[in-house]
Design goal:
The complex is a heterotrimer.
Chain A (H helix, E strand, L loop, with lengths): L2 H6 L9 H23 L28 E8 L5 H17 L3 E7 L6 H9 L6 E5 L3 H6 L23 H6 L1 E2 L2 E2 L1 E8 L1 E5 H6 L11 H12 L6 E3 L7 H12 L17 H16 L13 H7 L3 E6 L2 H10 L6 E5 L6 E10 L5 H15 L9 H6 L14 H13 L9 H5 L4 E2 L5 H17 L5 H17 L2
Chain B lengths: L13 H5 L1 H32 L4 H4 L14 H10 L1 H33 L4 H13 L6 H9 L13 H7 L3 H12 L3 H9 L4 H12 L1 H17 L2 H6 L8 H11 L2 H33 L4
Helix pairs in contact in B: 2-15, 4-15, 5-8, 5-9, 5-12, 9-12, 10-11, 12-15, 14-15
Chain C lengths: L24 H41 L1 E4 L2 E4 L3 H8 L2 H33 L4 H13 L2 H12 L5 H8 L14 H25 L4 H9 L4 H12 L1 H16 L3 H6 L12 H11 L3 H31 L1
Antiparallel strand pairs in C: 1-2
Helix pairs in contact in C: 1-13, 2-13, 3-7, 3-10, 4-7, 5-7, 10-13, 12-13
The chains are: A alpha/beta, B mainly alpha, C mainly alpha.
Chain lengths: 480, 296, 318
């Protein structure tokens, strides 16, 4: 479950530092050399690296089935999630058929990750052998020297589905060319709609608005229903406002930070369009409701109570609304993010504790491969998921591309427990994913002011809000 | 108390009040104050109780309804189950009374030692303790947090353990100050008499000092318990595990994830136990507080 | 503090030899040593707690403020952290907001309870009920009160706008406007917390001798002059102590803005210093910056308390 990942998106981000970047080239070259040595040569070649660890030479080879090793791993489903826990245990049992001597010791952490606990864990170096993190945590983990570089261990043999995994996703767990984690799940953002309100307002729920003009028109119609119903909702607090500004800007093909990561890049026509559109919806049309300063969790409540027509969201917001807010899957639909040029993505992954033995690393990769990265197995065994009464059909996780994706989508569709056609617009129009900007949280904090400014102040000057934010983001980026 | 005593002379002179105009003004003011205070202090509470009865749609409807159209008592049972109030309340009491016990033992002993036993460096230690009064707790939140997740020397992580609440609560310089001042006012002769009888320092504390110190112990206890009861940031950081959370943090966690009507119902439920406790013991609490009041 | 001192024992008879006739030096030393061991024994628990959770963190704050941890290494960075916070666009805004909050909180949270206490003290009926009402909110779990206020303030479905509408007043944005957000936070905070201060003032008022009012009346003093010349001076000590405590408390405000406006508020108008510390440490994982800002606040408050105590002491003597 990735519910908290959204909450989490609101924190931590890599702080690139100048001196580190200069090291990058050298490090990348070294990694490449290791990779070549690992993949291209067999273990009998002893001329290779006499300085490297004894086992490093055969790092690329899959785990020897006879290896005896114990792995601790967190984010095992808690007892309250009986079906997920049952599946976890089944998967361990099946994994042990191939690797009888590997003991998987799951730790039930619910939610899987909580920022203060995570920070404490890294500081005290008390993380399990295999530990759960969000995409945005890499720099924090590295600052605490917490994860092993697994580049040498990851290849087509140890991870047969590697070619099918979205390279953009794999890149998130890379730093200076080194791989530090393997993905568990991911999301891309789109436009979430309330089908019931769409129908009541005389709109077609099967064709969600695709541009901001269409969003505005639809929002106006939905808000006209009255009784405190809002057409479109947006965040403006706890750094989630800046997060959504980024998502909307990406959708229109804009950038938040320049390619070299040194300057703000949102004070342009695209940025203005995003903010001006919000201003018009909030104040000219009054279609965004009166309650602002919302943060993650608030819009979901409104939409689950049929008081909100649309907002930008990841697919698993629907699961959240169904499980926590008593909503129904049928009531929701999704379309691609307005503009559809690019979309913000995020997710979570597992890393391996620094200092683990090569056997442990291999065993960890074997388990992660089996449980999370094999189409038709583990978390992608959709027939079983359905049989266990869990929801199937959400376009998430969305780890694969190409043939692997087609194949996975097909089995997902066959076993779906919800009307997948409601997500057709989202599924049929895949938008390229784009990662968060550097220093994301610090930038989001500044951009929150743009959002809260335009949504709470009737006379807000859009150009001024953006230029102030630009100055401040430049300050943040220059501030090391 | 005031009812029995002859009323003390206050700001307005009795003569003025006795006059016809004075009487009328008095009654008008009284009626206004009673009405206004009732609205100000009970109005929000009514809104809370009734909001918890509204349906998910009605509770966020504009304009709001004064009386729920559809009464849904089910919100309360949902809130009860979701929140697990019994556990949250149990945790909070466990932390609060644990903190109280630690403060009563350590702070009383320290104040006694500083006041009566006067060890070498006693003045320095007292000064260092009182200095922390000038420095509010939140300012040190970061180093304190880093200390709790890895306590030096003993190398322990206190996260999610009650010790993270109890031990830092002992560093309550204000309570030590109050206790020491009180002990200072206990005549030395009583101590000497006990010493003559061969009583140890501990014995003297137990059988001479403490029995005389009931009022101050009451005040210190209220401060200790209220401190834990009101705290938010510290338990939010140090007790992330849902099973270990306090009432405040439990409500806060809940607030992001349930519909508004369920949340409001939860707020009501969370308020009931302490309100009841207060109504039952109000006499003792009020007199304890006013006795603790520092008179000018 | 009269209520907090122990009854005096009948003076006169001196029990026992407090300072006995000089005995042999070694025995005296041994006795002093024993006394010190037991005295420090009584102290040790509190001293250890202070050491670990108060003094050590204080020292550590100084260290952290001048250090940075990156890639598993901790290095000294001189004034970098201070430079970082000074360059943060939110830095000055946070200070302005915190001072605004403190100012408003003094206006409301300090003056209102005093006036309420004076008023209640005059009433001969229903005083018990009124005291109960005023103190009621103090007993609610603070988070419950704050969230209740968030619900009341909502410009759409909240009670306040409904009430304003009912009596023909224009609707307000309450927490959702950079002009009124801080005021709303202070109002909520005053509602929640005024009970304690009111009761303390009430107790103090009851200690004012009635003759003073009579004397003032003989001089022809009206209501306000009696308050100003009798009530206030007679409660000055407690007022000045409460003022200090309140300033220190309000400078650290966190919970209310955190819960009511998500922390930063409209255009950052409710970002407070402590919220900024929280963001640095727990959103940006920049403990150095958090410690540096904490250090600045620490130094300021300590200086303020010292100056305040000195001034009020001078005032007492003068």
């Amino acid at each position: 479950m990735m519910i908290s990942s959204r909450l989490r998106t609101t924190r931590t981000f890599p702080r690139p530092s100048a001196h580190r970047r200069t090291l990058a080239v050298a490090a990348a070259a070294a990694t490449l050399a290791t990779l070549l040595a690992a993949c291209g040569t067999s273990s009998s070649d002893d001329d290779g690296g006499d300085d490297s660890k004894p086992a490093a030479a055969d790092a690329g080879a899959p785990l020897d089935p006879k290896t005896k090793v114990t792995l601790t791993i967190d984010c095992m489903p808690p007892a309250t999630k009986a079906a997920e826990l049952k599946e976890w245990k089944e998967d361990v049992a099946e994994f042990n058929k191939t690797y009888p001597n590997v003991t998987i010791q799951g730790k039930q952490t619910d939610p899987c990750l909580e920022p203060p606990r995570f920070t404490a864990m890294l500081k005290a170096k008390s993380q399990p052998d295999v530990f759960y993190t969000y995409f945005t945590d890499l720099q924090q983990v590295l600052d605490n020297d917490g994860a092993e570089d697994i580049s040498a261990y990851v290849n087509d043999k140890t991870l047969p589905a590697l070619k099918g995994i979205d390279p953009g996703v794999m890149d998130v767990m890379k730093k200076d060319g080194k791989q530090y984690g393997l993905p568990y799940s991911n999301y891309t953002m789109g436009l979430l709609i309330n089908r019931k309100l769409f129908e009541e307002a005389g709109l077609d729920p099967n064709t969600p608005p695709a541009t901001w003009e269409e969003v505005r028109t639809a929002a106006k119609k939905i808000a006209a229903l009255g009784k405190g119903v809002a057409g479109y909702g947006e965040y403006s607090a706890a750094n989630t406002g800046g997060w959504h500004f980024t998502a909307a800007t990406y959708g229109l093909g804009g950038e938040v930070v320049s390619a070299d990561g040194t300057k703000a890049a949102f004070n342009d026509e695209t940025g203005k369009q995003v903010v001006e559109n919000l201003r018009a919806m909030r104040w000219d049309d009054d279609s965004m409701g009166k309650t602002q300063l919302l943060k993650w969790g608030d819009l979901q409540k409104q939409m689950a109570a049929d008081k909100l027509g649309m907002f930008l969201a990841a697919p698993d917001d629907i699961t959240y609304m169904v499980q926590n807010l008593k909503a129904k899957y049928e009531n929701f639909g999704m379309g691609p993010i307005p503009g559809a040029k690019a979309t913000l993505f995020g997710g979570n992954d597992y890393m391996i504790k620094k200092g683990s033995s090569p056997d442990k690393i291999k065993a960890a990769i074997a388990w992660l491969n089996f449980k999370f990265l094999t189409p038709g197995k583990g978390q992608f065994d959709w027939a079983r998921t359905k049989a266990d009464g869990l929801p199937v059909g959400l376009p998430q996780p969305n780890l694969f591309t190409g043939d692997a994706k087609t194949q996975d989508d097909a089995t997902r569709g066959e076993n779906s427990t919800m009307p997948v056609e409601n997500f057709k617009a989202f599924m049929d129009n895949p938008v390229p994913g784009k990662a968060e900007p550097p220093k994301a949280q610090e930038i989001y904090k500044v951009l929150d002011n743009v959002m809260s400014g335009v949504l709470t102040n009737k006379n807000a000057d859009v150009a001024k809000l953006l230029s102030t934010a630009e100055t401040q983001v430049n300050q943040v980026l220059a501030n090391q | 108390m005031a009812a029995v005593e002859i009323r003390q002379r206050t700001l307005i002179s009795p003569a003025q009040l006795a006059r016809r105009r004075g009487r009328i003004t008095y009654w008008i003011v009284l009626a206004l104050v009673l009405g206004l205070f009732t609205v100000i202090f009970l109005g929000p509470l009514y809104w809370m109780v009734s909001g918890g009865l509204k349906s998910t749609q009605e509770v966020i409807q504009t304009p709001p309804t004064a009386v729920p159209h559809t009464v849904e008592p089910g919100n309360y049972s949902d809130a009860w189950q979701l929140m697990d109030l019994a556990r949250l309340l149990g945790n909070t009491l466990f932390y609060a009374f644990g903190a109280l016990a630690f403060q009563l033992v350590f702070d009383v002993a320290a104040a006694y030692s500083l006041s009566k036993l006067r060890p070498v460096f006693g003045k320095v230690i007292l000064g260092a303790m009182l200095a922390t009064l000038m420095i509010p707790a939140t300012v040190l939140i970061v180093p304190q947090y880093l200390t709790v997740i890895d306590v030096p020397i003993v190398e322990r992580n206190l996260l999610n353990s009650p010790w993270a609440i109890w031990l830092p609560s002992v560093t309550n310089a204000f309570n030590i100050f109050l206790l020491k001042r009180f002990f200072d006012s206990i005549p030395r002769e009583l101590m000497d008499a006990a010493a003559m009888d061969g009583a140890s320092a501990a014995r003297t504390l137990w059988s001479v000092i403490l029995p005389m110190s009931r009022p101050i112990l009451g005040v210190v206890s209220i401060f200790a318990v209220v401190g834990v009861w009101k705290d938010f940031l510290w338990p939010m950081l140090t007790l992330p595990d849902p099973a270990a959370q306090t009432l405040n943090i439990g409500i806060y966690s809940l607030s992001t994830g349930v519909p508004l009507n369920t949340l409001i119902a939860a707020l009501t439920i969370a308020s009931v136990p302490t309100l009841l406790f207060f109504l039952v013991f109000q006499r003792n609490i009020m007199s304890g507080l006013t006795a603790g009041g520092l008179k000018g | 503090m009269s209520a907090l001192t122990a009854p005096k024992s009948p003076a006169g008879v001196r029990h026992g030899p407090a300072r006995g006739p000089a005995t042999d030096g070694r025995a005296a030393f041994a006795r002093a040593f024993r006394r010190n061991v037991s005295a420090h024994g009584f102290l040790i628990g509190a001293v250890l707690c202070f050491g670990f959770f108060s003094w050590y963190p204080m020292v550590r704050e100084f260290f952290l403020a001048f250090q940075k941890t990156e890639d598993g290494r901790t290095v000294w960075v001189g004034l970098d952290n201070l430079r970082y916070i000074a360059n943060d666009p939110a830095f000055w805004q946070a200070w302005r907001n915190t001072l605004l909050f403190t100012g408003l909180a003094l206006l409301l949270g300090f003056v209102v309870p005093f006036l309420v206490a004076v008023l209640l003290n005059e009433l001969r009926h229903g005083q018990g009920y009124l005291r109960l009402l005023v103190y009621l909110p103090v007993m609610l779990p603070p988070v419950a009160s704050v969230l209740l206020f968030k619900y009341l303030y909502d410009p759409g479905y909240g009670l306040f706008n409904a009430a304003f509408g009912a009596v023909g007043l224009p609707e307000q944005q309450w927490l959702q406007s950079s002009d009124t957000a801080m005021l709303c936070i202070v109002l909520a905070s005053t509602w929640m917390n005024m009970g304690g201060a009111t009761l303390i003032y009430l107790a103090a008022l009851q200690g004012i001798p009635g003759e003073l009012y009579e004397a003032a009346e003989l001089d022809g003093a009206g209501l306000w002059r009696k308050i100003w010349h009798v009530t206030v001076p007679q409660t000055r000590l407690i007022l000045s102590l409460m003022l200090l405590l309140q300033i220190i408390a309000t400078m650290q405000v966190f919970t209310e803005p955190f819960l009511l406006t998500g922390g930063a508020g409209p255009e950052g108008s409710t970002t407070t210093v402590v919220y900024l510390i929280y963001q640095y440490a727990f959103s940006f994982n920049n403990y150095g910056a958090a410690a540096a800002l904490g250090l600045v606040l620490l130094v300021l408050l300590a200086a303020f308390s010292a100056a305040y105590t000195r001034l009020s002491r001078a005032g007492d003597e003068g």
